[in-house]
Specification:
Layout lengths: L8 H19 L19 H5 L4 E4 L5 E5 L10 E17 L2 E14 L6 E13 L2 E14 L6 E13 L7 E6 L7
Parallel strand pairs: 1-8
Antiparallel strand pairs: 2-3, 3-4, 4-7, 5-6, 5-8
C-alpha cells in the first residue's frame, strides 16, 4: 500500500515550479536548431575485439627505479640530482587484419634530490615486447619531464603509442616497461 502524497502545499508547489523552470531552461536558446543536443554514439565494439588477445604489460624487476647523480657522485646520497619511479602501467590494443597495434602507457614520478636544479630532466625508458626469448619489439625512449618545483615530487605520464606486431598465434607475449641506463660503464 502506497503513501498518498498531498497535492497542495509547499512540496507540490516547489515541484511544479522546479519542473516549469527546467522546461523553460530546456527550451530557451538563441538558435532554435540547437534545442536538441547532438547525441554522440560510442564506437561499435565487435565481438572479435572483446575476445581478442591484448598482451599484458608489467615492470621488469630492477627497472622501476632510476637515480641520477652529479658527475663522480654515484652512490653518494648527497649528490643525488633526482630519483624517478614508474608505478602503474596499462595498454590498449587495436586490431588490423593480421597485426595488433599496442599503445603502452606508464605513470611515474620524479623526486628531487639534494643536487637538483630547476629544468627539464631526461630519463631513459625502454619498452620491450617479447615472446619467450624472442624480442618482437624494443625501443629506448628519452622521456623528458620539466621539474620546476625542487621541493616536491613531479608526476609524469610516458606513452609509446604505436607498437605493431603480428597477431600472436598463442597468448604468450609479454610487454615490459622500465628504465634502461644501457650497458654497465667501466
Amino acid at each position: 500500500m502506497g503513501v498518498p502524497l498531498k497535492t497542495g502545499g509547499l512540496f507540490a508547489g516547489s515541484l511544479v515550479m522546479g519542473l516549469a523552470l527546467f522546461a523553460a531552461g530546456c527550451q530557451s536558446s538563441d538558435n532554435p536548431t540547437r534545442n536538441v543536443p547532438d547525441v554522440v554514439k560510442p564506437p561499435a565494439v565487435r565481438e572479435s575485439e572483446l575476445r581478442a588477445y591484448c598482451p599484458g604489460v608489467s615492470l621488469r624487476e630492477g627497472t622501476a627505479y632510476f637515480s641520477t647523480y652529479q658527475k663522480g657522485g654515484d652512490g653518494d646520497a648527497s649528490k643525488v640530482i633526482y630519483q624517478a619511479s614508474l608505478t602503474d602501467t596499462t595498454r590498449a590494443c587495436t586490431y588490423d587484419g593480421e597485426n595488433v597495434t599496442i599503445k603502452v602507457a606508464a605513470a611515474g614520478k620524479v623526486v628531487p634530490g639534494p643536487a637538483v636544479r630547476p629544468g627539464t630532466i631526461t630519463m631513459p625508458i625502454r619498452v620491450a615486447v617479447v615472446r619467450g626469448s624472442e624480442v618482437l619489439y624494443s625501443k629506448l625512449h628519452q622521456q623528458q619531464v620539466p621539474v620546476s618545483n625542487t621541493n616536491a615530487a613531479t608526476q609524469f605520464m610516458f606513452t609509446d603509442p604505436a607498437i605493431t606486431i603480428p597477431m600472436p598465434p598463442q597468448r604468450n607475449v609479454s610487454i615490459f616497461v622500465g628504465f634502461d641506463e644501457g650497458p654497465e660503464k667501466n
